[in-house]
Specification:
Belongs to the FAD-dependent oxidoreductase family. With 397 residues, the protein is an alpha/beta fold. It is built from ten helices and 26 strands. It is globular, with a radius of gyration of 23 Å. Bound molecules: flavin-adenine dinucleotide (FAD). Flavin-adenine dinucleotide binds at residues 6-12, 29-32, 39-40, 42-43, 75-76, 102-105, 123-124, 150, 239, 242, 271-272, 282-285, 287, 315.
Length: 397
């Protein structure tokens, strides 16, 4: 069976590998020029801790051994599912029996005045981080728009290169989707102290200033942040244009069933471009799980992709923050353990005797314990008094 995998990000590369292991004839097309690499680790290249080759997950020899035909810098421009044919942007045709769309997401570029100036960067691909690393020198002033997970990671990485960074965030505390206000405040304080990051929040960006190059970022409240470079980290959008033009059902992402089949059964979709039960994932663990489910479907097995609570952790060394599940839900009870002097903080949310969300700051060793309780949907009423102290206290009790 000829399988065409479109997109060589983590999901596409994993699915191609599994299909090839099962003896299928696999072609893997990636729009980026690079060999498949670990996107999650891009911050290490941006900060100068690693060089691009260190991130490659599927080298040329491995792809050859697997029997995968890898085509880098090959964007698929059109898909004819009924005829089993795809067309590349260069006009070549590739035939297939099954296609797997793994086109991921694109970073959003805010349509601000000045957004097209050089020195305005996105943070998504190897090309983005190589370009940023070339641009930053010691003392470069950088404004990072977006204080979410990726914005903070980009800010910490460029500060490691010697940049002076201001994070501009629309909400009053960073990572508001993963953290409650208290944990967010602790995080901003620690990033200020250890990484010299400044924060402007809540603040909306209005325009990037400068004629031929960036000179500042104007905020809606009238302030202006002097800078020579802007990084936009304001979210992603699933890459669904190819699927839509091919006539597949697309909502926010490409709509798939539990077996990762799209509305056209010979075409599967996985990773950040797919929408499963109304949810588009934004993390690598579900993207890998979808790749495994799709590979099982290709092998003719009854595959079921079962989403799990998706924990998030900030990958800035020396900062231990972790969260999972629902954060500050209106209809849940909260238990808080806080010792600001030593920078430890925990907040847990319970509904109907079950743990539905958790934030850990300063000490994240109990993350697997809380995640297990959430995933298992276990009734925690009997352990409630010692719950915020973590797993060790449960064993003692
Ligand atoms: C800097 C950074 C840090 C991150 N850190 C974390 C983290 O700590 N934890 C975590 O869980 N997640 C993290 N993520 C998110 C994680 O990287 C994604 O969830 C994951 O990459 C999704 O994989 P994917 O294969 O679905 O899509 P992608 O990684 O987006 O890959 C899709 C690929 O398809 C290609 N493509 C698109 N259209 C076409 C086409 N028409 N033809 C051919 N190729 C095409 C794209 O160029 C791209 O290479 C991070 C992301 C970034 C950018």
């Amino acid at each position: 069976m000829r399988v065409l995998v479109i997109g060589a990000g983590p999901a596409g590369a994993r699915c191609a590998e599994r299909a090839a292991e099962a003896g299928m004839v696999v072609t893997l097309c990636g729009a980026e020029p690079a060999l498949p690499y670990d996107r999650v680790a891009l911050g290490r290249v941006l900060s100068g801790e690693a060089e691009p080759p260190a991130l490659i997950t599927h080298g040329a020899a491995r792809l050859r051994d697997l029997g995968i035909t890898f085509r880098p810098a090959t964007r698929i421009a059109a898909l004819d599912a009924a005829a089993g044919r795809a067309e590349t942007a260069r006009g070549e045709t590739i035939g297939f029996d099954r296609a797997v769309i793994a086109t991921g997401s694109e970073a959003v570029r805010l349509p601000l005045p000045g957004a097209a100036l050089p020195d305005v960067f996105l943070y998504r691909s190897m090309a983005d981080v190589i370009a940023m690393r070339r641009r930053v020198t010691r003392g470069t002033r950088v404004a990072v728009i977006g204080g979410g997970l990726l914005g903070l990671e980009a800010a910490a990485s460029v500060s490691q290169l010697g940049a002076r960074v201001t994070v501009v965030h629309a909400v009053g505390w960073p990572m508001e989707r993963q953290l409650d206000p208290m944990a967010g405040a602790l995080l901003a304080r620690q990033l200020g102290a250890t990484r010299r990051l400044d924060f402007a929040m809540p603040a909306l960006s209005e325009a990037i200033e400068g004629q031929d190059h960036v000179t500042g970022l104007r905020l809606a409240d009238g302030r202006s942040i002097a800078c020579e470079m802007v990084v936009m980290a304001v979210g992603v959008r699933p890459s669904v244009a190819l699927a839509r033009e091919a006539g597949l059902t697309v909502a926010r992402g490409i709509v798939v069933d539990d077996a990762m089949r799209s509305s056209v059964p010979s075409v599967l979709a996985i990773g950040e471009c797919a929408e499963h039960r109304g949810i588009v994932c934004g993390l690598v663990a579900p993207a890998f799980a979808m790749a495994e489910a799709a590979a099982a479907t290709l092998r003719g097995e009854a595959a079921i992709y079962a989403p799990r609570p998706d924990p998030t952790a900030l990958k800035v060394s020396g900062i231990d923050v972790w969260s999972a599940g629902e954060i500050e839900p209106a209809d849940a009870e909260a238990i808080t353990l806080s010792d600001a002097a030593i920078g430890r903080y925990r907040r847990l949310w319970l509904r109907g005797g079950r743990l539905v969300g958790a934030v850990l700051y300063g000490d994240t060793a109990d993350a697997p314990f809380y995640l297990g309780l959430m995933a298992g949907g276990r009734d925690v009423t009997a352990m409630r008094d010692l719950l915020p102290f973590g797993a060790a206290f449960q064993e003692v009790a």
